[in-house]
Structures are given as C-alpha cells and as structure tokens.
Write a structure and sequence with these properties.
There is one protein chain. Helix content is 25%, strand content 14%. Strand 4 and strand 5 form a beta hairpin. The longest helix is centred in the first third of the chain and has 10 residues. It is elongated. The two termini are 14 Å apart.
C-alpha cells in the first residue's frame, strides 16, 4: 500500500484551525511565521524561503499565495516514496505492478515498462 504523508497530515491539522499566525515554514523547518504558501510544493514559506522561492529559476512556475488563501485551495494528496522521502510516487511500474518514484524507476527498475500513476 501507499505510505501516509505525515508532513501533509500535519499541515491539514494546522489548516483546520482559523489561526494563520500559528503556521510556520515547512521548507527550512524554522519556527518563523509563514508569509506565503506554494501551491506546487504544498508548503508554507517564511520570509527568507519566500524570497528565495521567487529568485530561483527552478521555482519560476510555482504559484505563491498568502497563507490564508491556502485553506481555500484544494490540492491533491501527494504520496511520498519510502526509499526516497523527497520524491512523490508518480510512476507505475508495469512489470512489478507497483507505484514508484522517479528515482526508483531510474535505479531499481531498469529495463521495466512504466506509465504515469493515476
């Protein structure tokens, strides 16, 4: 089965409260108050991470919204790989009949056939 994303679960618990001032950065794990939320990363950002996110070209397509807007935005659940915790389970290995991450596909399922996970 799929592993529960505990980081996301913690965020959902925080979202259920109306107090956005209690939200902290989920990127650098500091206790700094969140000033934005990245819809692509599903993470709250402190001032420093928000500024970095806006400067770095790898995040140029990411949409940042105020923390209070994150509550109103519906996001799909992201399941993380147990072997590579920073990677989402996005690939289905047809041979092994399991959902895996890109790293697993590259390193552990060589010469297998894949399709996008649904």
């Amino acid at each position: 089965g799929l592993i529960r994303n505990t980081n996301l679960s913690k965020r959902v618990e925080k979202l259920s409260s109306n107090n956005t001032s209690a939200l902290t950065c989920g990127v650098c794990q500091s206790t700094a108050q969140a000033v934005s939320f990245c819809l692509s990363c599903n993470q709250y950002l402190c001032t420093l991470c928000d500024e970095s996110h806006k400067r770095m070209s790898m995040f140029k397509t990411h949409a940042l919204v105020p923390p209070e807007k994150a509550k109103q935005t519906s996001r799909p659940t992201v399941y993380k790989c147990p072997k590579h915790p920073d990677e989402a389970l996005k690939v289905y290995c047809i041979k092994c009949e399991e959902v895996i991450c890109r790293d697993c596909a590259l390193y552990h399922h060589q010469r297998h056939s894949f399709k996008p996970a649904e």
